[in-house]
């Protein structure tokens, strides 16, 4: 069989994992960010009457969503954070911003990712189901995790770091926002030095105890996008440590990030 046929055969037996959290009113967002809000803007009862003369029996309904692009599962653009007013490559944030968005490093510049994904299930490597509150993941933790899983993290991979705290996204807002475990400056440097293409993690703040510093290390210093508030529990449950990861950000011109619904595809048959 050709390579394409092998791929199609493997794909037919693959399992797709939804790595996104649901979006809902009252969901956890950063305390300084606007709350996510969705309301039904048009009701079937109204539009059926509205269209009665031109399309008898027809009706439709529509919602209105008000949110920042950093609510729930999302990816950060390079213009999202700055150090001393400077973005990646020394670009001055104040010189590329308009009221309608950024003229450089906007969301539309975030690539569509189709990459090898590596799950770093840190709790499992320690014999735990979830990391202790406010635990800072070390570089040694990540190295031992890869050894435990028997996989490698290569240049260009998507690193998916599991802490176990995604379970609280829909059940315990305060615990999710305040008790999370995360990476540290040390482990962030370890990941950056491996030249990953994208970092994903199952909490909102990403790092402990200095989330802003670690964000700057990725977005400003290394120019690596970060994806947060992932759901990694099913991937971990099935011990799918290596998968094909697909991430398609919205094309929001000049935006600072994008809501996303990433997926991982785990192959039961090896692709030749």
Features:
272 residues; alpha/beta; Glucose Oxidase, domain 1; 2 domains; two-stranded antiparallel ribbon; 24% helix
Detail the topology: elements first, then pairings.
Layout: H1 3-12, E1 15-18, E2 37-42, H2 44-50, E3 62-66, E4 74-76, E5 97-98, E6 101-102, E7 113-121, H3 122-125, E8 136-137, H4 139-149, E9 158-162, H5 173-178, E10 182-183, H6 185-193, E11 198-201, H7 211-222, E12 225-228, H8 233-237, E13 242-247, E14 257-259, E15 263-266
Parallel strand pairs: 7-9, 8-10, 9-11, 11-12
Antiparallel strand pairs: 1-15, 2-3, 4-12, 4-14, 5-6, 7-13, 13-15
Helix pairs in contact: 4-6, 6-7
The secondary-structure class comes to: alpha/beta
Strands side by side in the biggest sheet: 1-15-13-7-9-11-12-4-14
The biggest beta sheet, please?
9 strands, mixed
Succession of helices and strands: HEEHEEEEEHEHEHEHEHEHEEE
CATH topology of the largest domain: Glucose Oxidase, domain 1
Provide the CATH superfamily of the largest domain. Putative cyclase
Helix content: 10-25%
CATH-derived architecture of the largest domain: 3-Layer(bba) Sandwich
Q: Give a count of the beta strands, DSSP E runs of length 2 or more.
A: 15
Low-confidence stretches: none
Cα separation of the termini: 10 Å
What's the Cα radius of gyration? Answer: 21 Å
Strand % is: 15-25%
Coarse morphology: globular
Number of domains: 2
Care to describe what's here?
- This protein is an alpha/beta fold and 272 residues long.
- The chain folds into 2 domains: 3-33 and 68-266, Glucose Oxidase, domain 1; 37-66, no CATH class.
- It has helices at residues 3-12, 44-50, 122-125, 139-149, 173-178, 185-193, 211-222, 233-237, and strands spanning 15-18, 37-42, 62-66, 74-76, 97-98, 101-102, 113-121, 136-137, 158-162, 182-183, 198-201, 225-228, 242-247, 257-259, 263-266.
